Amino acid sequence: MAALAVLVTHVAFQTGATQQGLGGAVAARLDAGVAIFFVLSGYLLTAPHVKAARQARPSPGARRYFWHRCLRILPAYWLACLAAAYLIPENRSASTATLLRTLGLIQIYHRGDLLQGFTQTWSLATEGLFYLLLPLLAGALVSSMRRGRLGSAIAVVGSMLALNMVFIAVAQDSTLLDRSLTGFWLPSFTSWFAAGMALAVVRQGDHPRLRRLRSWLDAAATAPLACWTIAAGTFLVAATPLAGPRGFEAVPTAGEAIAKNLLYLVVAASLTVPLAFGQNRPTPFVRWLGSRPWRFLGEISYGVFLWHLIVLAGVMRLLHVQLFGRHFIPVLLLTINGSVLVSTVSLFLIERPALLLRERWPSRRAQPQPAVSADGGQEATAASAAAMHNWTQPHAPA
C-alpha cells in the first residue's frame, strides 16, 4: 500500500493532477508512503535487537545483518538502475561517475546525480545510511534496556527526533547548505525511523512502564478503525497549505517543512500500530493482510517501488502524453499494471534467487536467529503485516 501511494503521487505529479483541486492535494500528499516505509524499517529492523535484550541473549550479528541487507536491496536495485540509465533517453548523457554514485547509493550527496526515471531512489539512499547506523543505534537502545535504564532508551529516540527538527530548521534557512540536497539526507527524516524504533521498544520491552503503554496500544490495535481515523484526519490536515506547497513551485518554509514531517510521522505510526500490536487478538484486517494475495503483493512491492518511474516514462511515451499533459487515469492504470508485471519478473528472476544466498556467508559460526527477519526495510509494505502477526517464525522477505 505504501508503494502504491508513492506510485500514485508520481503519476499525479507528472500528469499535472496534483494541481487540480482537493483530489490533487490528496494525490500530492501520498508521498507519505515514504514515511510508512521509514517507520516500518525502524520497527522491523530494531525489533530483533530489543527482543534479544528482553530474553537476555545476544543481539543479531552485524555481519549477518549487513549481508542480508545487501542481498535484499542491491541486486534488484542495480538492475533497475542500469535499466533507467540505458532505457531513458535523458540519462544517456549521464557521466560514469554519476552512474557509479547511483549504484553505490550515494547519489543524494552530489548535485545532479538523480537519474530520470530513478529519482524516487533518493529514499533508498537515505535508508542506506540508516542501515549502516542501525547496529549502533540498536546497540545503544539494547544497552540501556539491559541495564533497566528506560530514560536512556528514551533519550536515544528523543535525540533522533530533536536532530530531525533542528536539521530541517537550519537547512531550510541556511545559505551554506544546498537545500536541493539536504532535503534528501537522513537527518531530515530521523524522526520517522525513531518512531518505528520506539514502537519496537514498546512492543518488545519488559519495563513496567512499557508494559502499561503496550497494553494501551494493544487495546488500540484491536480497534483499528480508531487508528485509521487518526491517520486519515492527520493526512487531510497535511493536504492543506499548513504542510507547504504541493509540488516544486515554491520552497517550503522551515515551519511548513517541520509540520509536514510531523504530520506524516503521525500518519505512518497510526497505520503501523494495528499491525504491530494486539497480537493476542489479531483483527480480521491483520488476518486479511496475512493472506496469500497480500503477501505476494508485499513481496513485489520493492520491485514496484524500483521500476514504476521507468514504467511511467514508457507509458507516457506510448500514449504520447507530455509532462503535465493530464490523462491521469489511463496513465495510472497502465503504470500500475506494467509495474506489477515487471516487479513479478524481478521477484522470480532476481530477488528470490539472491535471497537463496543468505545462509552461504558468513558461516564461520552460528548466529542467533531473530524472531523477525532483518529483511524488512524499504520493501516492507503489506507483507510486513503478516510478518508482525507471527513473531515466532522467520518470514519470507517482506
Low-pLDDT runs: 365-398
Helix count? 16
Helical percentage: 55-70%
Categorize the overall geometry.
Answer: globular
Largest sheet: none
N to C succession of SSEs: HHHHHHHHHHHHHHHH
How much beta, percentage-wise?
A: under 5%
Gyration radius, rounded:
20 Å
Oligomer: single chain
Tally the beta strands. Answer: 0
Termini gap: 13 Å
State the secondary-structure class: mainly alpha
Overall residue-averaged pLDDT value: 87
Could you outline the blueprint of secondary structure elements for this entry?
Layout: H1 2-14, H2 21-28, H3 33-54, H4 62-87, H5 96-103, H6 122-146, H7 150-173, H8 179-182, H9 190-204, H10 208-221, H11 224-238, H12 254-276, H13 284-289, H14 292-318, H15 328-355, H16 382-389
Helix pairs in contact: 1-3, 1-14, 1-15, 3-6, 3-9, 3-12, 4-14, 4-15, 6-7, 7-9, 7-12, 9-12, 10-12, 11-12, 14-15, 14-16
